[in-house]
Each structure stands twice: as C-alpha cells, then as structure tokens.
Design brief:
Shape: elongated
Strand content: 15-25%
Number of strands: 2
Strand order of the largest sheet: 1-2
Largest sheet: 2 strands, antiparallel
Helix content: 25-40%
Order of helices and strands: HHEEHH
Number of helices: 4
C-alpha cells in the first residue's frame, strides 16, 4: 500500500497500514528506526478537558441564541 502523504512523512508501508487501522485513543510513535503502537489513557478530568470531538460537535454560539 502506498500513500503520497505517508511517503512524505517518511512512513513505511507497514506504518501506513497501521495508521489507517487506528481507532480512537491509539497512536503510532516512531523513535529512531522503530515504531510502536500506543494507547492513550486519560484521567476522567483530562478526558473532559481535552475532548476535541465534543468541541467539533458543540455549537459555542448556541448559548447566545435567544430561546423566546
């Protein structure tokens, strides 16, 4: 499997495949010539603060719109 973006980033075909299969909370770290699959674990307070998905789906202006 080939990807112009992956090649630009210096990723191998195996790394490109791994990235395409990642689910939420998973990542790929490359250190020197080695790659590692990672799992990101957050405390519940961190999860609430850094929930980027919620920020993309919440309308920040909705609280400013009059309801009556």
């Amino acid at each position: 499997m080939s990807s112009p973006r992956g090649e630009t980033m210096g990723l191998t075909g195996t790394e490109i495949q791994a990235i395409s299969a990642l689910t939420r909370g998973r990542g790929l770290w490359t250190v020197a010539d080695r790659s590692f699959g990672t799992r990101h674990i957050l405390h519940e307070r961190e999860a609430a603060r850094f929930d980027a998905d919620a920020r993309m789906t919440t309308n920040p202006l909705s609280s400013q719109i009059p309801t009556s």
